[in-house]
């Protein structure tokens, strides 16, 4: 089952200015590597459902050395991915403050998570509170289930799952899926299982995690 960018909110329309054009420039691959953040340490989490293993590296080491060679490993616990964990959060605050958050009333209480990944990277099926995810570079594919996915294997990489097991699923067991392009924002419901797969050599994004749905209304 395929949904489209119509399921995304705040998506850019042809010819319309992007609300977060400044973030797109700041999160360009070369801009990050040439800027003050390149030497900062980031915490890379394993790409399995529980993300329990952590590896520390500088941003330059991750983008230049670790990121390009990871996606073919079928074991998510051996694949490391940067999605929001900082060793020095205050150093990233000025950059994150440039981000225009989605227009819901509880967004000021939200937590922001910045991520960067290469082709074939992503996170296996997991769930959490509701939120939004916006892509600035590259394309990110989403697979979503309202309940637990069939034959759930938390240690399997999403790249391996998408290549080897997804094609074998009968139509009634396939997830909702869509691909988010630069300038588009996806809303994900609370407690829905989802997996993400980055399709291009460089993907940058910010996810916004919100409080409980009862406290959120559209502005």
Automatic annotation (TrEMBL):
GO molecular function list: cis-regulatory region sequence-specific DNA binding
Top-level division of the source organism's lineage: Eukaryota
Report the GO terms under cellular component: nucleus
Name the PROSITE patterns for this protein. Answer: JMJC
Instruction: List each copy of the JmjC domain by range.
Output: 90-219
Query: Can you name this protein?
Result: JmjC domain-containing protein
Organism for this UniProt entry? Phaeomonas parva
Supply the source organism's classification. Eukaryota, Sar, Stramenopiles, Ochrophyta, Pinguiophyceae
């Amino acid at each position: 089952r395929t949904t489209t960018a119509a399921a995304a909110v705040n998506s850019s329309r042809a010819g319309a200015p992007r609300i977060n054009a400044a973030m797109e420039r700041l999160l360009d691959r070369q801009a990050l590597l040439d800027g003050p953040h390149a030497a900062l340490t980031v915490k890379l989490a394993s790409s399995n459902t529980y993300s329990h293993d952590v590896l520390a590296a500088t941003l330059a080491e991750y983008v230049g050395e670790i990121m390009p060679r990871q996606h073919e490993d079928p074991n998510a616990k051996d694949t490391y991915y940067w999605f929001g964990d900082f060793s020095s959060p205050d150093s990233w605050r000025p950059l994150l403050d440039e981000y225009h958050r989605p227009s819901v009333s509880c967004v000021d209480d939200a937590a922001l998570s910045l991520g960067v990944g290469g082709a074939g990277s992503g996170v296996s099926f997991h769930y959490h509170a509701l939120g939004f995810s916006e892509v600035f570079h590259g394309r990110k594919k989403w697979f979503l289930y309202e309940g637990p996915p069939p034959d759930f294997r938390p240690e399997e990489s999403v790249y391996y799952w998408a290549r080897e097991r997804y094609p074998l699923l009968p139509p009634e067991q396939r997830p909702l899926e869509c691909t988010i392009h630069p300038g588009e924002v996806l809303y994900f419901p609370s407690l829905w299982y989802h997996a993400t797969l980055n399709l291009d050599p460089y993907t940058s994004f910010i996810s916004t995690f919100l409080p409980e749905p009862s406290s959120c209304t559209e502005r």
